[in-house]
Amino acid sequence: MTVESRWPVGLSLVDSTPAVLRGAPSVQQPTLWMAHGAGTVPPGWETTTAVVNGAELSALVTDSALVPVLGPVHVAVGTAQTRQVKAAAVAVCVPRRVRESAILHRGSAAWFHACATPPSVLEFVTHRENRCSTRPAPPSAAVRWTVRQLLYEPQDVDHFHGCCVTTPLRTAADLACWEDPAGLAALRLLLTAPHLGVDGAQVVGLLRARSRLPHRTRGVITVRKVCRQLGLPVPA
Hints:
Elements: E1 13-14, E2 17-18, E3 32-35, E4 49-52, H1 54-62, E5 66-70, E6 73-76, H2 83-93, H3 96-99, E7 103-104, H4 106-112, E8 121-126, E9 144-149, E10 157-160, E11 163-166, H5 168-176, H6 181-192, H7 200-209, H8 216-230
Parallel strand pairs: 3-4, 8-9
Antiparallel strand pairs: 1-2, 5-6, 7-8, 10-11
Helix pairs in contact: 4-5, 4-6, 5-6, 5-7, 5-8, 6-8, 7-8
Protein name: AbiEi antitoxin C-terminal domain-containing protein
Organism: Kocuria subflava
């Protein structure tokens, strides 16, 4: 079996594992792996993406050679799932018209910030004043997505490699207002992730500053509760 023509090296499977995944020094390691027909390779990733048939991809996942990033997009075990890699995975699964006008938020933003598992449904938000369709993903989409309207400030949004995502601080505030066990787990990680620097007092301050944010009173109570459980300073 061989990979499809999108991957120019012409990798072949040996003992169910391509040479690149077995550390062959003469073959460049692809960054992204995806099944043929599962999505469009994003611009700039044509020479670092291996497009294989579905059976090959399943075999590599079963053999623990690949791990999922998002939907049909995978990387080799040990490959860092950077923001650039995740932005590319979103580009594979979501059309540009949605990505250019909508922002990843809540659990999907937590995943992007390395504080949650890959979402089964990508959650986007768009400003109420933007002209953006809120239609959900079609049945044929590689990954389902939803778009909801919400008010937000420009400082609540980060931009990474063509992907818009709520900042770690705003993500924590949104998760605190959202009654969901997975959201609480992500909130705990956001508050303790050293690379993000999210402080409970800052989250409470943002919730108080956003007077039109739904359920913000609940969010303040949740942040205090989680900080107490984690042994962190409890915001006043």
